[in-house]
Amino acid sequence: MKTTEQIIVQTKKWITDVVIGCNFCPFAAKEIKKQTVHYRVENSTNKAASLDAFLQECVRLDEDENIVTTLLIFPDGFQQFDDFLDLLADAEDLLIENNYEGVYQVASFHPQYIFGGAPVNDAANYTNRSVYPMLHLLRETQMDEALERYPNPDTIPDNNILFAREKGVQYMKMLRDACL
What we know:
By secondary structure, the protein is of the alpha+beta class. Helix content is 49%, strand content 12%. The protein is built from 7 helices and 4 strands, in the order ααβαβαββααα. Helix 3 (47-63) crosses helix 4. It is globular. The two termini are 13 Å apart.
């Protein structure tokens, strides 16, 4: 069994080598450099406990403005992508129910990530295929500010898809798996 520290190190390597290295998120490098990312490993496989951890991270963001974004990592839970999508939907509902809509948004990453309508073996899926299932909580105000300063932010997803497909499944899988 991996320690919390090992899981965080692997996640940081994935962010550095894949997310930043492939420029999937042009805003990530700045936050990593500034150390404004909080990492939380949730070892529970229980959905209710995991959603409680999600809400705790919303409260942490409320209380600590030095944290811009949180990665809630589930090394043991939600290994099946459909189960993870259920967790994601419930987390999004919790944002609304707890008056966090418009304050925080959640992005999702999973080792088996498949975009809706995409084939399983599409290299583009690797733009969201992480080393562990994780929910990424972001402050909407920081995202809005970053997008305003970025030229043509609408092109980011298309550029990511193009990059991943040019590199191919084998390369993208190798790059991600090298983080473990």
